Amino acid sequence: xxxxxxxxxxxxxxxxxxxxxxxxxxxxxxxxxxxxxxxxxxxxxxxxxxxxxxxxxxxxxxxxxxxxxxxxxxxxxxxxxxxxxxxxxxxxxxxxxxxxxxxxxxxxxxxxxxxxxxxxxxxxxxxxxxxxxxxxxxxxxxxxxxxxxxxxxxxxxxxxxxxxxxxxxxxxxxxxxxxxxxxxxxxxx
Length: 189
Prior knowledge:
The chain is α/β, with parallel strands linked by helices.
């Protein structure tokens, strides 16, 4: 199965990792803006919040295209501080943020050049926490992305569900900060 590179992917993306199939991450596709490639969605006091990593457009051809493997992260904004602040303020009262913040904060302090490297490192950290060991590799040539199956998200505790009800298929980080070690149980269901 071939999946797109994703920034803190949604729960359904991670469910594919449990199928037992080898997973390839497509690195030869043209970058698509406003997708999970550089955007994740978390719960916030005001409802779903999209966190978007700014992209450096200098590598894009005049046609506006750039292969995913060549997409660089822009250094012209303080996005890392903003994203960490959003994660911290949103999940500060979640059951597991206090225990896991030191594992995730370094991703928002280190300078990253390429979007795929950042996504891959964060995905590996999430897999480590979930104690799953999928076979992940980057594609060697363009193969296209398989349509992602829609895995219904089982309800789990969310910090703001009393305010705006349960939000399905948020970023895996929402599940991890809210459910901790039980996250894998929900993923397997």
